Amino acid sequence: MGLKACLAVLMVTLIFLSDPSSAATHIQFVYLNASEDGAGGGHAALKMDDEVFHFEHVPPGLLKIKRDDFAHFRDQYLARENRTMEMHHVAVSEETKILLREHFNRVLLIEDEQFDRREALENDGRLLKALLQLSRHDAINHGKTNRLELKGAGFFLPDDWQFNASILSTQPEFSEPSIDRLRCLVIAEYGNNFLRSKIRETFSNLQTLKPVAYESFGNSLAEDRFQSSEYTFSKQYSDYMGILTALFVLQQGLPLREGLLVQSDREEFSLSEKERLIVVAYRNWLEGQLVRLVGQNHPDWGFALLLGMARLIVLEQSLVSGHWVMLNLQYAEGSKQGNPSNLTDATFKEYASSRARFSEAKSALMGAATPSEWDYLHLEKTTNQFIELGNALREGRAANLVGMKSLPSRPASIVLIPSALTSDELQTSLDRLEGFRSGYEENLTQLYSYNLLGRNCASEIFRIIGLAMREASKHKTSQPGQTFTDQTAEVESTARLGGYISGKGWEFIPFVSSLRVEDTWRIAFSEQVLSYRLQKLEQARQQEASFWLSWRESNVFSSEVYQWHGNDPAFVFFTDDLMLARPLAGGVNLLAGLAQGVSGILTMALDGGENLRLGVKGVMISLPELFFFNIRKGTFPGLVALEE
Question: Does pTM surpass 0.85?
Answer without folding.
Answer: no
